[in-house]
Write a structure and sequence with these properties.
Keywords: Signal. By secondary structure, the chain is an alpha/beta fold. The chain contains seven helices and seven strands. The protein has one domain: Glutaredoxin.
Length: 165
């Protein structure tokens, strides 16, 4: 019986550790070079540094992604509910032209950057990207306040933004 209890305790501690939320971006993510809408290169670190002192909602998306497009009305509602936050859209589009067309077509309002190597690339792996859309929240100090939700109306996302106001 003691062995069973010990094994259950060990399993629980392993599970809770694996579900622990990341609070900082990995070096690989910060060094990842992205593209601006002006077609200039910028590292993710430089992007994050621009918004220090602000609450930032990161929306990882792509113009080819049906779930991302379906979720855009929820993002717009979130922007209305929390207008003081900065909305940072990181695109997983395969090329610059498709990305720019997607921003215009879906009227995506916010700050926009394009990853250099898609979902399975350096940035995607460093944030454990397994689905898009993917939402994250960065607090005013640059720390990750919410690492992962996949719905813009997820209660965890809304509660995190309320707590950071």
């Amino acid at each position: 019986m003691k062995k069973i209890i010990a094994l259950l305790g060990l399993a629980l501690s392993i599970t809770s550790c694996s579900n622990a939320q990341d609070t900082e971006f990995k070096k690989e993510a910060l060094e990842n070079v992205m593209t601006t809408t002006e077609n200039k290169s910028i590292t993710f670190q430089e992007i994050i540094d621009q918004y220090k002192g602000q609450t930032v909602v990161v929306d990882v998306w792509a113009s080819w992604c049906p779930d991302c497009i379906k979720g855009m009305p929820k993002v717009k509602e979130l922007q209305e509910q929390f207008p003081e936050a900065t909305y940072l859209f990181i695109s997983m589009d395969k090329n610059y032209e498709a990305w720019i067309k997607g921003i215009a077509k879906y009227e995506v309002k916010g700050e926009h950057y394009l990853t250099s190597d898609g979902m399975k690339g350096v940035f995607g792996k460093s944030i454990k990207l397994d689905w898009i859309p993917r939402y994250m929240v960065i607090d005013k100090t640059g720390k990750i306040a919410l690492f992962k939700v996949i719905e813009a109306d997820d209660n965890k996302l809304i509660e995190t933004l309320k707590s950071l106001q």
